[in-house]
């Protein structure tokens, strides 16, 4: 089985399928081809969300704003899976998730950086074909054939593919971490005890849900929050509020998201990818946090 | 084979695919993942349109505005097929179609109601897992695993699955029925003889075709109608009118639909799901129905 | 394997899948179902782009503005592939590509015309079922069953299918050819030497890239051009210009396309399918073409 992910829209991915079927009779499974265009961080987010659900297979994921530049093609081997795509960081969050190292996914501000393969927790290979592709469509001309070859050769013997060799480094990608806000009470901040957290929007999904980097655990036991000055309920399900109402909920990815029932959260909260989100929780029963009261009613 | 239908957009359904492939090597076939969001009636309409074309397989269809509430998960067994999804009525129209009981699909106004399983014409099972899922993504966490288990266990032995037992009742869904209009001449109305029919729009498809609940037989032998006061031709095919022109035709689902060639019928006719549609046919050769003349030229 | 292409959107193609799976357990591969609606030329372009990437299989492609009219259903056999669809020209460009006759694809202005099967370079069969389908959904009722039957019968023995017989003619489709412009210096125009070329937009893809009929070879060795009076760089990759900038590049289909990095080329260049595109190259080092200077700065 080979899964395909891209930002190519339609009908470009079909050309990749044809190329693969010329080389193998593996099953092809579409993950998505409408991932946010040329958005490496969104790709990393969604691939981390989806790929760990699969049994160990080959995943070909091409979100590649650097196509035509010097960036390498890589294959990552982790937990029986193989990830094939450009060396731009997009494959790293799913690789960490597959390596069960999510807890180590701690922030460098969302920027890509160079990382050493020896500490990665997974194996990275670089692919340098003898005759470099000149095309603008590396999905069809580089990555699809490489994914087919990884499938045919076997994930455990990637090294045997011509042009594949262990990489010394790779472009890393770590999502930014939310930070405690609002003064001394947050000095001993943990996700469970924070009274105020500043995070940012990682991605907006197709329905306008603005998904943040704030873990859902931060809202445990809370039923209301002030998000960028707007007071909204924290609910388990959309059905808990009226149509058109804003809400904060924990999405299936485990993060807080800013949503509207039967509407678009990104518009109602005026939030897009990368925007700062300040989430302040009202005072708890023990009287702490009174100072937040006015924010709460903002 | 397992078919997948949802209103999840992208890339959420891919997580369901991964979950299924971890449990079975069944073929997965996408029906659609852009069904009208949280619209149980539209789901029922489209599933009834598509699923009976398939050979007997497992169908997992998740349009689930009640996710997170007390609604049950159900499996319907009918004609060798199994339908897996939430107990909200969306699975009932395709179940009736598969039971070859379409003729019994007579109106209660489109509302959902409670029905007794003994009269259903198909078997309904409820699924109550030991440890209830807390997630907001039951497509991935409840229905995908259940569909995989139904496939592995076999449709004829659904009862053997842990947590599955015969249901006593289920949420029914029947589409509204069109009604004769326009006075005494419609007293002996049948689909074939009606001079005026009031129905409603069931769904609007992706091209803007406003599909009504009026059966195509109502327009047999007619070449023109007045739809909500607008006189339009009744044609067999779009090519029979000029680009941009309004028309009434019988869609592949068997119902009259309000369309525009190379345009959107919903906009031209100002119609959306649930809107009332009055269709009046001009007088026939025997001179009846002169009173409709002015409507005809409205 | 059967590939499916259409302009049906969703969920109509799923009905075709069901129909096919009732008749064969062939693998079904979606090429695209959002091809430009009822646009035979765009269908020909995209099918020519995608289908030759596949190994020899059955391709069912239904872009069919003439559904319900007298147009025939055809099957084309070429290079081990079978193309199933309406006789409107849409299958001809991929058939020529599969016949390795692309070089013969020379222009009659993009119009469809009647062609003789004896010169085609591929075999054309017409399909006339005993009981003609009356439906508006020939994708489900004619082409899907026919594709399944071609698959089951075998591409080499299409003639054995009831209702299939060799065609004497078929509706041809050839894309228009670009022409040299700008006076005597273009008298001995070839794609390599032209200083000015007038072509047209064949299709606009989902990202707004306006793809022309001017072959990329026309721009070899050039780094700038004046497109309809607008001076833009010719680049290998989007990354060579700033976000929001216009550019001319050679797409993966081999033609020049008018694009914007992180934007829509069709809007920035004000171009749609069928629009004329004049591309003028600045003078080269040998001093020729000074007269183009003002156009260049237009």
In sequence order, what are the helices and strands of chain A, one letter per element?
EHEHEEEHEEHEEEEEEEEEHEH
What is the rounded distance between the termini of chain A? 52 Å
Q: How many structural domains of chain A?
A: 2
What do we call the CATH topology of the largest domain in chain A?
Rossmann fold
User: How would you describe the oligomerization state of the chains in this entry?
Assistant: homotrimer
What Rg of chain A do the Cα atoms give? Answer: 21 Å
Which percent band covers the strand fraction of chain A? 25-35%
| Overall SS class of chain A | alpha+beta
Instruction: Report the CATH architecture of the largest domain in chain A.
Output: 3-Layer(aba) Sandwich
Average pLDDT value of chain A?
87
- What is the number of helical segments of chain A per DSSP (H or I, 4+ residues)? 6
What characterizes the major β-sheet of chain A? 8 strands, antiparallel
Low-confidence runs of at least 5 consecutive residues of chain A: 101-108, 183-189, 287-298
Give me the count of strands of chain A.
17
Q: Which CATH top level class of the largest domain in chain A fits?
A: Alpha Beta
Largest interface: A-B, 31 and 26 residues
Enzyme class (chains A, B, C): transferase
Keywords (chains A, B, C): S-adenosyl-L-methionine, Transferase
Family (chains A, B, C): Belongs to the SAM hydrolase / SAM-dependent halogenase family.
EC number (chains A, B, C): 2.5.1.63
